[in-house]
Design a protein that fits this description.
Oligomer: single chain
Distance between the termini: 14 Å
Shape: elongated
Structural class: alpha+beta
Number of helices: 1
Number of domains: 1
Bound molecules: zinc ion
Strand content: 25-35%
Largest sheet: 3 strands, antiparallel
Length: 72
Amino acid sequence: MALKVRVMASHGPMRKGAMPALVYRAEAYEETDRFREPQWGCSHNHDSVEDAFNCGLSWLHAQSDDSAAETA
Ligand SMILES: [Zn+2]
């Protein structure tokens, strides 16, 4: 099973009189899933795409610690 990381943008909490800022969350989905249903999603509100992506990558690395199949 090969997981991929993607970043989803959404609006942050609404504040009166202010535009809600965009927040970013990392999601992991299975590469072979045609619907790309998220298998995992981080629960943070990242300020940037890069932050969220790095968050997703570190989660991914934590998952693949004991898989030797990735090193083909
Ligand atoms: Zn995160």
